[in-house]
Amino acid sequence: MAKLTGIEIYKHLPKTNCGDCNFPTCMAFAMQVAAKKVGLEQCPHVSAEAKAALSEAQAPPMRTVTVGAGERAFKVGGETVLFRHDEKFHHPTAVAIRVKDNSADAEQRIEKISQLQFVRVGQKIGVNAVAVEQTTSNGNKFVTAVKLAAEKSPLALVLISQDSQALKASLEICADRRPLICAATKENFKDLAALAKEFKCPLAVRAATLEELAELVQEIKALGLEDLLLQPEATLTADGLTKLTQLRRLALEKNFRALGYPVMMAVHEENPFIETAQASAFVCKYAGLIVMDGTERWQLLPILTTRQNIFTDPQVPNAVEAKLYKVGEPNSQSPVLVTTNFALTYFTVEGEVENSRVPAYIGVVDTGGLGVLNAYADDKLTAEVIVKTMKNYGIMDQVAHKRLVIPGLVAVLKGEIEDTGGWEVLVGPEEAAGLPAYLKNEWKA
């Protein structure tokens, strides 16, 4: 369905040009509504009939769907742009790890999945859901596995089965967790749609082609369901990326309502390296949920790091508070290091100092969230700024050695800092990875 134009929206407005919507004319307001920059409710005089007629103009191009309940629930969809630099991506890709109903170590696997949580640059990142998959004809095994997952893991649940009876028995156990039911096909969509409606759960819709997917979604929507995820079938990474991109363009550029839903991708890859690469690619373009098998930390960290980097606001620097930090329990003989308030830089430096086991002070300079070289190039990390910052912290009056360690990338500032501050300046390594060896072997109070 094509989006409504400003003229079409204008026909339903009062046409009084009263200005109560904060626009000079009804036409100006209609153009802003058509561009989705303001909501129709901003006009206090619009009639109920007009609201109903213009509901399509008001609806976002991609629906936001919540999976799970409580603190571990996550949202997918609701995206408004194709490219991150245009605005930002809003709802980070969720990652679910499979547990098969015939797995002999299901309990241990579920517990391991629940522990796949990390802290990177001061933020908690981790796996979002346990995906229980039926791989046998025994529905009781599937129900038992779902019950185990519900009891042993606080994460959201994804129920993967084509057996409507087994799904119903499982939903009776965990419906309060609002799991995702996966997946409705042209053969079983009526049964699964009935379950999704009865238990108020989101439903994944699977089809081989985008045309079949659109037709199936229309039939399911006619049954009264709106919280849907799309699951296009794809055998190769390239095929998956093509379909993900086509779906995103159809939803956002063409405003094609039948495909205006978040997309999930199931990764089936025996090679763990390829599985990680494929999942990372799908995070970039444009999966809302990924289901995979890998449970090793080295497999998940690249995917979660990619997600963390992609789902940030490119217009807002990722920065930490500029202040004096302590690592361990430093004293008057402990080293004093300087760095910038770019979050990745600070947390990398902090982590390496912790690894050295040498207690230290880290004086963070406010560089507007820029790293060392960028801040130096932009005149935000200068000798004057460093000296002023360290004097404000008063740290050089607290240490007996009067020595300051600056990043090796700005070694050129050494002489000017010594002249301005009156301290001895030591040039540290260019890379944070060199700090443990530097502090252990070269630092002398």
Summarize the structure in words:
- The strands form five sheets. An eight-stranded parallel beta sheet has the order 10-9-8-7-6-3-12-11. A three-stranded mixed beta sheet has the order 13-15-14, with helices on both faces.
- It is flat, with a radius of gyration of 27 Å.
- The chain contains 17 helices and 17 strands.
- It has 445 residues and is an alpha/beta fold.
- It has helices at 6-10, 26-34, 48-53, 55-58, 106-114, 139-152, 164-174, 189-199, 210-221, 237-252, 272-284, 297-310, 343-356, 372-377, 383-393, 414-421, 435-441, and strands at residues 64-67, 74-77, 94-100, 117-120, 123-126, 129-133, 156-160, 180-184, 203-207, 228-232, 264-266, 289-292, 324-327, 336-340, 360-365, 403-406, 424-427.
- It has three domains: 6-58, Electron transport complex subunit B, putative Fe-S cluster (3-methyladenine DNA Glycosylase II, Chain A, domain 3), CATH 1.10.15; 64-310, Dihydropteroate synthase-like (TIM Barrel), CATH 3.20.20; 324-441, Rossmann fold.
- Helices cover 38% and strands 18% of the residues.
Tell me the layout of helices and strands.
Layout: H1 6-10, H2 26-34, H3 48-53, H4 55-58, E1 64-67, E2 74-77, E3 94-100, H5 106-114, E4 117-120, E5 123-126, E6 129-133, H6 139-152, E7 156-160, H7 164-174, E8 180-184, H8 189-199, E9 203-207, H9 210-221, E10 228-232, H10 237-252, E11 264-266, H11 272-284, E12 289-292, H12 297-310, E13 324-327, E14 336-340, H13 343-356, E15 360-365, H14 372-377, H15 383-393, E16 403-406, H16 414-421, E17 424-427, H17 435-441
Parallel strand pairs: 3-6, 3-12, 6-7, 7-8, 8-9, 9-10, 11-12, 14-15, 16-17
Antiparallel strand pairs: 1-2, 4-5, 13-15
Helix pairs in contact: 5-6, 6-7, 7-8, 11-12, 13-17, 15-16
